[in-house]
Amino acid sequence: MKKNNKIVRYPKTLNINIGVIFFALIFIYLIFNVYIYLTAKHVSYYEVDEGSIRIQTSYTGLALREEQIVYAGESGYVNYYLKDNSRAKCGSLICSVDENGDIAGQITRAGNTENTLDAESYSMLVEEMKDYSNTYSDMTFYNTYTFKNDLQAELMEAVNLSALGSMSEYAANAEADHTFHRVTASVPGIVSYYCDGYESVTADNFTDGMLDESGYEKDNRKAFTHVEAGEPLFKLITSENWQVVFVISDELKEILADDSVIKVRFKSDETTAWATYEIRNRGDKNYLLLNFNNSMIRYASERFIDVELLLTKQEGLKIPNQSIVTKSFFVVPQSYFTKGGNSNSQGLLIETTDDTGEKVQKFIATDIYYSTDECYYVSEDELTKGTKVIDPAGGESFVISASEDLKGVYNINKGYAVFRIIDILYQNEEYAIIARGTSYGLSQYDHIALDGSIITENEVVN
Fold first, then answer.
1. Which residues, in sequence order, are bridge partners of residue 305?
2. Three-state SS for 426?
3. Which pLDDT value is given to residue 116?
4. Cα 37 to the chain's mean position, in Å?
5. Contact (CB, 8 A) for 101 and 76
């Protein structure tokens, strides 16, 4: 039987694998997105939120007082009878000068003997120790040393007065011989036993160099047992009105410009007081002058005083300084703005020339970035300097020329950059506090470009 060797070939069919095509498309899509991501500009954003900045308000100021130095009329040995920084009435015995040293020596020796205090002085010292013990706190342990020094001074003065009283007849004879001299307060005031050369300095004649305490020195007159004629014995602070002056920044000057009263904390003892103030300008520096009418006696022994201005924190919308940029805008009177075109957008009628050379008016919609009572601010990207704008009501013309720089940030809520004006209330090295609810400004939770310098108006951001 004859074999049939004829081979019949069937046409090949194309088998399409839908799964392969689907994954190929996904792969191409991923590659495309990776390319777009790698080549696109990446803009980090910052979410605007409520915040505050505490203003740096700690300063060291120069204390200015009404001070009178009392000088020795004769050379001799000195004994003091009144505690440092205590009140003296007119005629109060402050110290004595003994020319030959006999009475001064007896007073000094009396301090080394027993039972030299009278009952009244002894009782007063005991009461002071009881008061201190009853009010003692570990939080104010530093006051212990001040109390110790004050007690020693009071003890010495009480002993000196007691010793002088016990030799009153002898002292009277020496006074008659003009070898023993009692020095009393000629006016009421606060007795201070240090001198530093600043006694005649006032708010009108202080110099900037006086505010530097690095080279400051003071002379404690109680450390001297002998004085020469013409040397200082003590000084009297004759008024409760006193001042503290120091240099402040331009930013703090602006904050304080609208007021004249401020609360101050003295850092040495954490007490507070109210002060009136004034700001004086000398050259390129601002000086804050605090005026007090109380508390002077607490700090009479200090020429340089650490104070803190108790200002309220600046509160508002908090943004990083890195976001802030400056942009220039044309300033156009509001009367030249109108609505036109196919929308209700505000814009301007500008005068142009058509192809035939005739002058025609054309409406251009513009974005308003900021406004005052009389003018609108429009971007320089939308208009050209020298463009003639027509008043839609009266037909008058205005040539665009004036421009002004304003600070703002780029809002990227909609995926592209829109410049927004900001009103800075306070600014430190890292952040700025801006006003809430301003027209054409920012709102809480807006997203802004973290670095405003790398982005431009209307740029699409990822």
1. 61
2. strand
3. 55
4. 45
5. yes
Residue 236 bridge partners (DSSP): 68, 191
Q: What amino acid is encoded at 292 in this protein?
A: F
Q: Which residues pair with 70 in a beta bridge?
A: 234
pLDDT digits (tens, 9 = 90+) for 358-380: 888 888 888 888 888 889 999 88
pLDDT band at 169 (very low <50, low <70, confident <90, very high): low
Tell me if residue 377 falls in helix, strand or coil.
strand
Instruction: Give the separation between CA 158 and CA 122, rounded to whole angstroms.
Output: 9
Do the Cβ atoms of 235 and 273 come closer than 8 Å?
A: no
Q: What is the largest CA-CA distance in the chain?
A: 176
Amino acid sitting at position 171: A
Instruction: Show Cβ contacts of residue 239 under 8 Å, excluding neighbours closer than 6 positions.
Output: 65, 66, 189
Tell whether the model's pLDDT for residue 354 goes beyond 60.
Answer: yes
Closest CA to 382 of 347, 410, 353: 347
How are beta strands 271-282 and 285-292 bridged, if at all? antiparallel
Torsion angles phi and psi, residue 231, rounded to 5: -85, 155
Q: What is the DSSP letter of 269?
A: T
Find the Cα–Cα–Cα–Cα dihedral 343, 348, 353, 358, rounded to 10°. Answer: 80
189 class by beta-carbon count within 10 Å (0-12 exposed, 13-18 middle, 19+ buried)? buried
Say which DSSP state 416 is in.
Answer: B
Question: What's this model's pTM, rounded to 2 decimal places?
Answer: 0.56
DSSP 254: H
Q: Which residue has the higher pLDDT, 147 or 274?
A: 274
Phi and psi for 124 in degrees, rounded to 5? Answer: -65, -45
What's the length of the chain? 462
Q: Is 116 helix (H, G, I), strand (E, B) or coil?
A: coil
Tell me the residue ranges of DSSP E strands in 325-430: 325-333, 337-339, 346-353, 359-365, 368-371, 375-379, 388-390, 397-399, 403-411, 418-421, 424-427
Q: Which residues is 403 bridged to in the sheet?
A: 330
Listed residue (389, 280, 384) closest to 332, CA to CA: 389
Q: What is the DSSP letter of 112?
A: T
381-417 per-position pLDDT tens digit: 888 888 888 888 877 888 988 889 999 999 999 888 9
Q: What is the mean pLDDT of residues 81-103?
A: 85
* pLDDT, tens digit (0-9, with 9 covering 90-100), for 282-307: 888 999 999 999 888 889 989 999 99
**Token pair 């304003």: residue:** 406
Residue keyed to tokens 């700025």: 432
- Distance between CA atoms of residues 262 and 55, nearest Å: 14
Helices and strands in the chain: count of H runs, count of E runs: 6, 32
